[in-house]
Amino acid sequence: MKNLIRLLTRSAVLLKKKLLAQFSFFATGYCTNVNHYYIRGSKNGALAQMVEQRIENPCVPGSIPGGTTDSKRPANRRSFFYLHSSGMSSFSPVKYFQSPDELGATLNQLASEKSSVIILADENTSDHCYPLLADSCQALAKAEIITVPAGEESKSLEICHGIWQTLIEMKADRRSLMINLGGGVITDLGGFIAGTYKRGISFVNIPTSLMGMADAAIGGKTGIDLENHKNMIGLFNAPEMVLICPEFLHTLPDQELKSGFAEMIKHALLHSRERWNELSAVADISNENVSELLDASIRFKTDVVLQDPFEKGLRKILNFGHTIGHAIESQLLSIGSPIAHGHAIARGMIAEAWISHQIAGLSDADFDSINTYINNLYPAPVLMESDTGQVLSFMINDKKNSGSDVRFVLLREIGAPIFDQGVEENLVRAALNRAMTIS
């Protein structure tokens, strides 16, 4: 690997001439003889400094917090493929691997056909997930790594500008391959970058979070945020492959595992009462428990996307919990009290289930089941009374709406969703009071 590029800023451009006056040193533990470009900007996005240093340390594997690599896994894992319709990309296989070694063999084959390989990661996946792949994939020895800050704030135009500029510096061309190694933020961001750089380069998603494996990395949706409005700029852009290895779940803290589990709850509520009963029996969210259910969640998401790749109809059901959930997430982010995406969606599901109970026929028993289970896992965040108007404003600007009408996905019963449902503002306000602690 010739260059490890760390983009740890919200910088807009790489201005070398202005940076030569300031230097400091940065080292990582898992590579040797690597040129490091450590780019860091101030909070206002101005580029502050760039660091280049050659490291002579021997390779040291990264640590893996939150679990060990020999934890029990289901024995019946297999590779499987799903194809998107020809509108987005000719195909986008989803493959399941039991170990990084198996995944590395597939990566070697993909990379052998490309002029260069670029890995997009965040600070966490660069440290904890990349080392799991490095030893098993020879192609990564020549890869460049672009690392962005972990978190939703990296889905910005400033970060995009910095990555595009870095790709130019690398001389990446249309035969280059981008590997998005991370959770939903990285696959959203990386797919958007790949789709726009030189009018499109190939990319592969390797989701490392439960959120990414169950939902975000599958389906070709890419995008970034604009002034706290979620995913307002983006495109449908399918990866060459989605490579899933549950081994990466052992690198996750408990809160990230719980965040991803919210999307699996959503899939179960949309799929069937039987699936919901199976999933809601899980009281302890652990690697072993979620791995048993992950296969079914992936299959459901992909089957829906196959039938409606561009969200003209059926795929809209996957937005259950997201109309209110995204607005909650955006408002808390804007006031400096961010919560995990899955936590926000979980609270959105409570709110939209309550609306379903009021106007769509969801029974008392079904609502109580949903409300009790989600409340036990995802406590209600605190929102000021004065913030509720801004939450409603975020809903009005939701990309799923038609004109000024806010559109919802509601449940007639568990396993029977309906979409494009209009809801009166007074009901939305009441639902928000159910989802949040208003002070």
Shape call: globular
Q: Describe the biggest sheet? A: 9 strands, mixed
Strand order of the largest sheet: 3-2-1-6-5-7-8-11-4
State the helical fraction: 25-40%
Q: Helix and strand string, N-terminal first?
A: EEEEHEHHEHEHEHEEEHHHHHHEHEEHE
Strand tally is: 15
Q: What percent strand? A: 15-25%
Distance between the termini: 53 Å
What does this structure look like?
The chain starts with a strand and ends with a strand. The radius of gyration is 22 Å and the shape is globular. Helix 11 (341-359) crosses helix 14. Mean pLDDT is 80; it is low at 1-91. The protein has 439 residues and is of the alpha/beta class. The strands form 4 sheets. The protein has a 9-stranded mixed β-sheet with strand order 3-2-1-6-5-7-8-11-4, with helices on both faces. The protein contains 14 helices and 15 strands.
Features:
disordered N terminus; nine-stranded mixed beta sheet; 439 residues; alpha/beta; two-stranded antiparallel ribbon; 14 helices
Structure at a glance:
With 439 residues, the protein is α/β, with parallel strands linked by helices.
SSE layout:
Blueprint (H helix, E strand, L loop, with lengths): L2 E6 L26 E7 L5 E8 L39 E3 L3 H12 L4 E7 H6 L1 H5 L9 E5 L8 H14 L5 E7 L1 H13 L5 E6 L2 H7 L4 E6 L2 E8 L4 E4 L9 H18 L1 H7 L7 H21 L14 H13 L6 H19 L4 H14 L4 E2 L4 H9 L10 E7 L2 E7 L2 H11 L1 E2 L1
Parallel strand pairs: 1-2, 1-6, 4-11, 5-6, 5-7, 7-8, 8-11, 12-15
Antiparallel strand pairs: 2-3, 9-10, 13-14
Helix pairs in contact: 5-6, 6-7, 6-9, 7-8, 7-9, 7-11, 10-11, 10-13, 11-12, 11-14
